[in-house]
């Protein structure tokens, strides 16, 4: 699943971890975006304002794809606040349709470059951050575009509350190993597995259409679960 982040890079042209593709947007998605997105969008260019005024534990899902996982999680936990970040407009439309159909009122959306936005956020903001199936950029020359790099891992750690959880999943074995190495070396992140290896599927992670398609192709899924500890 492609994600929207602009990889951390200072002093040079940014290396983006996403490519904007001209995905097909349906008439229903277009209508719901016009109707609902203005009220639910978090403007990435403006200073952070908590939509729930600090009264709810916050989860951030980066690159939510078609939104089915985020919608299910938010529906299961109406007492919490959920922020989904996605750059691809059809995915935003899909999530909005699910929100409208199910009457979900605890999701807000960042439809922009989430890394640039994350840089502006205060420390210890999220109880949980979820990144599922980021673009694997499988070719060697492309791997500098991968989202999970040391600088980005440091920022994820900074944005988690102490005791907060970072969940990741990928179906690319070599990217899974890279993630594991980077996160195990990130100060302030603790691998929840005693052997510092991969985790079982988190209870909240439902199999999405994207994952089911990968399983039909014989792809294994690798889960990683870390928690934030005092540095």
UniProtKB/TrEMBL annotation:
Family: Belongs to the class I-like SAM-binding methyltransferase superfamily. TrmB family.
Organism: Acidithiobacillus marinus
Keywords on record: Methyltransferase, S-adenosyl-L-methionine, Transferase, tRNA processing
Pathway(s) of this molecule: tRNA modification; N(7)-methylguanine-tRNA biosynthesis
GO terms under cellular component: tRNA methyltransferase complex
Protein name in UniProt: tRNA (guanine-N(7)-)-methyltransferase
Enzyme superclass (EC): transferase
Substrates-to-products reaction catalysed: guanosine(46) in tRNA + S-adenosyl-L-methionine = N(7)-methylguanosine(46) in tRNA + S-adenosyl-L-homocysteine
Sequence positions that bind S-adenosyl-L-methionine: 61, 86, 113, 135
Domain of life: Bacteria
Protein's gene: trmB
Enzyme Commission code: 2.1.1.33
Coiled-coil annotated spans: none
One MF annotation (Gene Ontology) recorded for this entry: tRNA (guanine(46)-N7)-methyltransferase activity
Stated role: Catalyzes the formation of N(7)-methylguanine at position 46 (m7G46) in tRNA.
Binding residues annotated for substrate, in chain numbering: 139, 171, 208-211
């Amino acid at each position: 699943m492609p994600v929207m982040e602009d990889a951390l890079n200072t002093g040079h042209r940014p290396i983006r971890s996403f490519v904007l593709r001209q995905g097909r947007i349906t008439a229903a998605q277009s209508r719901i975006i016009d109707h609902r997105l203005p009220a639910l969008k978090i403007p990435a260019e403006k200073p952070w304002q908590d939509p729930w005024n600090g009264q709810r534990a916050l989860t951030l899902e980066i690159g939510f794809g078609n939104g089915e996982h985020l919608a299910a999680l938010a529906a299961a936990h109406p007492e919490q606040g959920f922020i989904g970040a996605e750059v691809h407009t059809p995915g935003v439309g899909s999530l909005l349709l699910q929100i409208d159909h199910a009457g979900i009122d605890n999701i807000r959306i960042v439809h922009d470059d989430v890394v640039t936005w994350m840089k502006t956020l205060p420390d210890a903001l999220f109880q949980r951050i979820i990144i599922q199936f980021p673009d694997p950029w499988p070719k060697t020359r492309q791997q500098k575009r991968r989202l999970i790099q040391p600088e980005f891992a440091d920022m994820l750690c900074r944005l988690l509350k102490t005791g907060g959880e970072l969940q990741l999943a990928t179906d690319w074995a070599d990217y899974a190993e890279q993630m594991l190495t980077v996160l195990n070396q990130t100060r302030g992140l603790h691998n929840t597995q005693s052997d510092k290896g991969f985790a079982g599927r988190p209870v909240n992670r439902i199999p999405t259409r994207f994952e089911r398609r990968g399983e039909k192709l014989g792809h294994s899924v690798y889960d990683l679960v870390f928690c934030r500890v005092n540095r």
